[in-house]
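PROTEIN DESIGN WORKSHEET
SECTION A - STRUCTURE
LENGTH: 178
TOKENS:
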């Protein structure tokens, strides 16, 4: 298969901290709630240096649910794009009832990026903090590293890591073995 290997990074809980709402991990709803993880920039730089193309893939149902504006989402994504070496931030702005093809655990966000950027999914990885991230990766033909959190289980994850930095080292070690 042609194309470049890529790393698909979930956004909330991976690139930026989750915001706890009603005891559940949730998304920042504007810039004042955005906390980019300190390890994200060096971790992504390591991946880029090894030839991985870098993308974010995120479900943002608070937009269709009317809990945040599209403009606020764009402010957050502009800030992430300015801070991190991401080629594209692909977001699903649908809710369950929409039946779209992109809301994780469906693979549509990853498949769309692969088509637009000529990526080799068999050599690509997803890093996520939710079971649906792992399911989405597998449905797209990628492997997945799960960041272990109190709110996830994902028994099907290919790898587990405590932090994004650890996930990156795990991917690069695997790469070296090939
Ligand atoms: Mg997440
Ligand atoms: Zn969608």
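SECTION B - SEQUENCE
RESIDUE ASSIGNMENT:
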């Amino acid at each position: 298969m042609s194309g470049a290997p890529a790393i698909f990074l979930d956004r909330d809980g991976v690139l930026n901290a989750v915001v706890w709402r009603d005891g559940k991990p949730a998304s920042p709803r504007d810039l004042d709630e955005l906390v980019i993880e300190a390890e994200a920039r060096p971790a992504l730089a390591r991946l880029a240096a090894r030839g991985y193309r870098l993308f974010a893939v995120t479900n943002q149902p608070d937009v269709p649910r009317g809990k945040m504006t599209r403009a606020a989402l764009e402010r957050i994504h502009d800030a992430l794009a300015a801070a991190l070496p991401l080629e594209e931030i692909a977001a699903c702005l649908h809710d369950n009832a929409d039946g779209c093809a992109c809301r994780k655990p469906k693979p549509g966000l990853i498949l769309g990026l692969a088509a637009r950027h000529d990526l080799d999914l068999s050599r690509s990885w997803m890093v996520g903090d939710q079971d649906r991230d792992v399911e989405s990766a597998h449905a797209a033909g990628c492997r997945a590293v799960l960041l272990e959190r109190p709110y996830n289980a994902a028994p099907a994850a290919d790898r587990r890591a405590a932090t994004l930095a650890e996930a990156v080292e795990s991917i690069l070690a695997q790469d070296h073995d090939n």
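SECTION C - NOTES
The mean pLDDT is 95.
Residues 10, 12-14, 128-130 surround magnesium ion (ligand 1) (CB under 6 Å).
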